[in-house]
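Re: [ENG-882] Designed sequences occasionally contain unexpected residues at chain ends

Forwarding the minimal case from QA. Structure tokens:
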């Protein structure tokens, strides 16, 4: 790999192109035709300041922006690119699929193959339905849970994101086990009146919610490892109690593994909890990201008895013109066939742990409060002395310090999530040199964050 350019070399490049910052030019154009200049809010750099990088191309563990600047990529399209960008076998599978047709609106054999491959590794699922996005999968799983139980209320946790369906865009209410308040304009209060928002890892609130509303709760939906408050895992006792209370009260436990599925382990986060809790299984699972390999594809699934409540065999309706798209399924299937190879997750996990341990050590050398966690190829770090257990604790991170870290790394060619609430991702394509360059860049930035 070529040496990462320090800021002065980046300036030399701008000089060669008559001092035009193409990222800035594109951003100005984009803001005239796209709200905020972006098609998903976190891309706008609003949280960290500065101009978003417009990406031209990517290969392996790197991408290049509109100025031709190269970055080590630790967002990986927010998780799907577990093999890195442009894996030759995946590219070949997609190219072949493209020549056969973009979309048919009719079933294909590859949908069956992908479903079979997914189900092979997730014992909690006997059937699944393919859709086009994690949001679509999440809202469909909730509809199915309500249809299966005949109940209306759902539980979610503050700091967990399950897509932008109206009923899920809620923040915690003011009291213990109170119903949530909308977090977005355009969501009427009556739409979220059945959504209970609890604090993650809070057993007291969990118990109270089921004591008060147990007979009305259709499902408890959770990220087993929350990736939208950076990286916060559910404690084993908390997870065990979630399972027990759902079983006791006849509610369904829905795992949102859009981020963790096939990313933290071959069997997802549920495989990790099953090792700690004998016989543990969620009732429904929502998947996305890795199963599409970078194409728009997601799924939700569970036991046959529940899944056969879906139309056309059951009364719960769901449909999608592009569901099971033949190009997306080709991409996802080729990706899964690579990650099931022996030793894949062991190597990915070791690489991710090395990055986290080295960053923690570099921060400690400069006296910077820093805590880390990782599982498989997913990681999180906090400018805090101890790992937070819920969203309220995550909020104690100093935003200004994180922004300094973000821009310091960006200036040195290392691209992490442009928001302190997002997890990061390592791919199989990240080399030892990529990791070393990242650590060296972080060492420089930690010096500037050193306490006075």
């Amino acid at each position: 790999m070529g040496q990462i350019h320090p800021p002065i070399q980046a300036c030399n490049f701008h000089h060669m192109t008559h001092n035009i910052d193409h990222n800035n030019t594109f951003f100005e154009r984009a803001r005239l035709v796209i709200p905020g200049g972006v098609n998903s809010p976190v891309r706008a750099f609003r949280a960290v300041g500065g101009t978003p990088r417009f990406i031209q191309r990517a290969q392996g563990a790197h991408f290049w922006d509109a100025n031709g600047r190269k970055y080590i990529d630790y967002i990986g399209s927010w998780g799907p690119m577990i093999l890195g960008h442009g894996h030759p076998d995946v590219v070949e599978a997609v190219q072949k699929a493209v020549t056969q047709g973009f979309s048919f609106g009719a079933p294909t054999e590859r949908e069956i193959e992908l479903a079979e491959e997914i189900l092979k590794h997730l014992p909690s699922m006997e059937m699944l339905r393919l859709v086009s996005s994690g949001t679509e999968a999440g809202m469909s799983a909730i509809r199915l849970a309500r249809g299966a139980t005949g109940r209306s209320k759902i539980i979610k946790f503050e700091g967990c994101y399950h897509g932008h369906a109206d009923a899920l865009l809620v923040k915690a209410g003011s009291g213990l086990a109170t119903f949530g308040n909308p977090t977005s304009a355009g969501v009427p209060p009556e739409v979220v009146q059945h959504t209970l928002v609890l604090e993650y890892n809070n057993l007291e609130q969990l118990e109270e919610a089921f004591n008060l509303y147990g007979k009305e709760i259709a499902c408890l939906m959770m990220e087993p490892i929350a990736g939208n408050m950076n990286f916060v895992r559910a404690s084993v006792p908390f997870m065990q109690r979630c399972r027990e209370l759902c079983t006791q009260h006849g509610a369904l436990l829905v795992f949102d593994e859009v981020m963790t599925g096939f990313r933290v382990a071959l069997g997802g986060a549920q495989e990790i909890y099953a090792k700690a809790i004998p016989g543990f299984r969620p009732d429904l699972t929502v998947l996305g990201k890795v199963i599409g390999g970078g194409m728009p594809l997601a799924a939700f699934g569970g036991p046959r008895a529940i899944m056969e409540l879906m139309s056309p065999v059951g009364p719960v309706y769901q449909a999608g013109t592009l569901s099971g798209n033949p190009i997306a399924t080709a991409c996802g299937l080729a990706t899964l066939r690579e990650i099931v190879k022996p030793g894949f997750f062991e190597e990915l996990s070791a690489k991710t742990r090395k990055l986290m341990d080295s960053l923690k050590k570099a921060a400690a050398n400069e006296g910077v409060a820093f805590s880390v966690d990782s599982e498989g190829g997913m990681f999180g770090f906090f400018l805090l002395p101890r790992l937070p257990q819920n969203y309220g604790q995550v909020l104690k991170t100093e935003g200004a310090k994180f922004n300094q870290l973000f821009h310091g790394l960006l200036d040195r060619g290392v691209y992490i999530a442009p928001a302190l609430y997002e997890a990061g991702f390592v791919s199989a394509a990240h080399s030892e040199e990529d990791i070393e360059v990242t650590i060296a860049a972080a060492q420089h930035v930690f010096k500037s964050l050193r306490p006075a």
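QA comment: On inspection the terminal residues look reasonable. The chain has two domains: 7-73+343-448, 88-339. Proposing we downgrade this to a documentation issue.
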